[in-house]
């Protein structure tokens, strides 16, 4: 009973700390979106994307759940809002959603859900709709690189066992937000500086 009583305040403090971190991250990202896009349709879509990304990152980190209601609700709004913002052609948005979600679905099927959850599949489908193609591939690459680095760091510190799952939602969120704000510049730099080397 004493252990349970002690655990309750600790979990409450952890939850409050998580809420505060999410609020601060959201505020910082809202400001970055405004610096990048100004008061525009792209900024409005960026606010929706940020809210969804932060919410899913927090719930995946704390409960290993990507809330289906949030993904579907924000996804429905972004389905309409993203084309109206006009940043990405409609064909690119459709290909981004199908390509991103389809790729993670294939991984989930091949690993029987152990390598990738359906929450990740649905989340990247929405993200892919917003950033389009090839932006979704860049977002997935950045997410995979960040996730691999975090996993190796945890292994090195002894905080994670081999075979233990890693919440991938936060890395998808990071990769997608970076691509939404700076994807065109990153792809342009790659085409100008890396492709010519081959």
Question: pLDDT below 50 for ≥5 consecutive residues: which ranges?
Answer: 1-7
Q: Report the end-to-end length measured between terminal Cα atoms.
A: 66 Å
Overall morphology: globular
Separate helix tally: 7
Strand content: under 5%
Calculate Rg over CA atoms. 18 Å
Number of strands: 0
What percentage of residues falls in helices of 4 or more residues? over 70%
Structural class: mainly alpha
The major pleated sheet works out as: none
Order of helices and strands: HHHHHHH
Mean pLDDT: 86
Structure description:
The chain has seven helices and no strands. It has helices at 2-37, 41-63, 68-85, 90-110, 118-131, 135-157, 169-193. The longest helix is centred in the first third of the chain and has 36 residues, at 2-37. Mean pLDDT is 86; it is low at 1-7.
Please sum up the structure shown.
81% of the residues lie in helices and 0% in strands.
Could you outline the blueprint of secondary structure elements for this entry?
Blueprint: H1 2-37, H2 41-63, H3 68-85, H4 90-110, H5 118-131, H6 135-157, H7 169-193
Helix pairs in contact: 1-2, 2-3, 2-7, 3-5, 4-5, 4-6, 5-7, 6-7
């Amino acid at each position: 009973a004493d252990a349970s009583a002690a655990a309750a305040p600790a979990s409450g403090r952890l939850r409050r700390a998580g809420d505060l971190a999410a609020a601060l991250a959201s505020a910082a990202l809202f400001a970055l979106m405004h610096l990048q896009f100004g008061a525009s349709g792209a900024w409005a879509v960026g606010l929706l994307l940020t809210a969804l990304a932060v919410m899913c990152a927090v719930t995946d980190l704390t409960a290993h759940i990507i809330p289906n209601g949030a993904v579907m609700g924000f996804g429905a709004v972004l389905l309409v809002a993203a084309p109206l913002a006009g940043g990405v052609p409609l064909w690119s948005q459709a290909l981004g959603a199908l390509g991103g979600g389809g790729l993670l679905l294939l991984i989930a099927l091949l690993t029987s859900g152990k390598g990738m959850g359906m929450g990740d599949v649905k989340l990247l489908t929405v993200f892919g709709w917003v950033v389009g193609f090839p932006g979704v591939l860049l977002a997935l690459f950045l997410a995979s690189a960040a996730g691999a680095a975090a996993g190796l760091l945890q292994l090195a510190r002894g905080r994670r066992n081999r075979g233990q799952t890693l919440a991938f939602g936060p890395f998808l969120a990071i990769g997608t937000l970076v691509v939404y704000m700076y994807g065109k510049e990153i792809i342009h730099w790659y085409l100008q500086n890396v492709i010519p080397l081959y």
